Amino acid sequence: MNKGFRYTLEPEDIKAYIALPVEKKLEWLEEMFILTTEAQTEKEKHVRETFRADVR
């Protein structure tokens, strides 16, 4: 069974991202982290923290 999703990016989109200042990239990353953590269940948060603890 194939799970997950796929998407492709156009070369213009990649070039536009590369051209962004580092600060903008980090802002986007932080916003995505907040969005995903707010959408996670307590169990999913626990799993994430378990993986993070193994990396440290």
Could you characterize the architecture of this molecule?
The protein has a domain at 21-55. It is extended. The chain is mainly α. 73% of the residues lie in helices and 0% in strands.
Q: Roughly how many Å is the radius of gyration?
A: 15 Å
The main sheet comes to: none
Q: Give the helix tally.
A: 3
Topology, number of strands: 0
Residue stretches low in confidence (pLDDT < 50, at least 5 long) are none
Distance between the first and last residues' Cα: 33 Å
**Secondary-structure class:** mainly alpha
**SSE order, as H and E?**
HHH
| Helicity level | over 70%
Mass-distribution shape: extended
The average pLDDT score comes to 90
Share of residues in strands: under 5%
Per-chain topology:
Layout: H1 11-19, H2 22-39, H3 42-55
Which terms summarize this structure?
56 residues
Summary of the model, kept short:
The chain contains 3 helices and no strands.
